[in-house]
Each structure stands twice: as C-alpha cells, then as structure tokens.
Amino acid sequence: MGNQQTGPAIDYDGLMQAHLFRVFAERDAERRRAAIRELYAETVSVFEPDAEATGHDGVDHTVDAILSKAPPSFVFGTFGPAIGHHGIGRMRWHFGPSDGPPVVTGLDVVEIVDGKITKLYVFLDPPAA
Questions:
Q1: What b/e readout covers 7-43, taking b as 16+ CB neighbours within 10 angstroms?
Q2: Distance CA 2, CA 26 (A)
Q3: Do 22 and 34 meet the contact criterion of CB atoms below 8 Å apart?
Q4: Between β-strands 74-78 and 88-97, what pairing exists: parallel, antiparallel or unpaired?
Q5: Low-confidence ranges of the chain (pLDDT < 70)
Q6: I need a surface site. Which of 5, 11, 28, 87 has the fewest CB within 10 A?
Q7: What is the spatial distance between Cα 89 and Cα 110, in angstroms, rounded to a whole number?
Q8: What is the pLDDT of residues 14-39, one digit of tens each?
Q9: Rounded CA gap, 128 and 117, in Å?
Q10: What contacts 24+ positions apart, CB below 8 Å, involve 92-95?
Q11: Which helix (H) or strand (E) holds 69?
Q12: Are strands 74-78 and 83-85 parallel, antiparallel or unpaired?
C-alpha cells in the first residue's frame, strides 16, 4: 500500500470503514452530513444496482432511503478489512438485525482521489436460496 507512485499512501481500511459506519450506518443526519463532507469528494458519484446519485446531497439521500426503510435494530458490519491498490478499494459488508443473521450482504468498490471517495459502486449479493 505504501508503494503508490504519486501522493501519500491510502488507508483503504480506515476510509472504507468510516464510509460504512460514519455514513451508511449513521442515523443522526447532522453527524452523517459532517462525515460525508469529510470522506467524499463534492462531485462523488454513487452507483447502486438500480439507482445513481451524485454529490454530497446524493450520498445523504441514498443513505436516508436505506435507513428509513430498515428497522432500528438493523446494523452494518464487515467481513474483514477493506483492501485496495492504485486508488481502488473494496470491502465486503452485511446488514441486518444486530441479534440475527444478515438480511443483505454485498461489496463496495470505491475510487479514491486525494484522500476522498470520488466513486462508489455498490454490489448486492443474490439472496441465499
């Protein structure tokens, strides 16, 4: 990770864990908006299987849509640390009740430029049969 040819080394795990827990899992709108400004470029693009969003407001609306439909007991978690190289990171996650098995699992892939997330691609795993 420290062998980047330009710029400082990227803390993929730190940035992606913050993206998940300080933004997507944050139900307090003020704290979430502050984290969005800190972690994402102003021109960030978010790509979900059936939706797209841009900018800080787009991230906030995306998260609000997810959390407003989920029961208060639902929490996010990760399957191991995020990894990355050459400005691209990935992290596997799960979402569901804190006292039960995940309802949704997936993978986030991000592009990072100048220490901020510029693109986020969300991949949802197919439901278990």
A1: eeebbbbebbbebbbbbbbbeeeeebbebbeebbbee
A2: 30
A3: no
A4: antiparallel
A5: 1-8, 129
A6: 5
A7: 5
A8: 999 999 999 999 999 999 999 999 99
A9: 30
A10: 93/20, 95/70
A11: helix 55-69
A12: unpaired
Give percent of the chain with pLDDT exceeding 70.
93
> Could you give the domains of the chain?
12-124 (3.10.450.50)
Length of the chain: 129
- For the chain, the maximum distance between any two Cα atoms, rounded to a whole number of angstroms, is 45
Q: Letter for the amino acid at 87?
A: G
How many helices and strands, by DSSP H and E, does the chain display?
Answer: 3, 7
Region class of 56: left (phi > 0), else alpha (psi between -120 and 50), else beta: alpha
Read off the tokens for 38: 């800190």
Burial of 126 from C-beta contacts in 10 A (0-12 / 13-18 / 19+): exposed
Amino acid at 114: D
Three-class DSSP category at 6: coil
> Residue 22: which residues within 8 A CB-CB, separation 6 or more?
31, 32, 35, 39
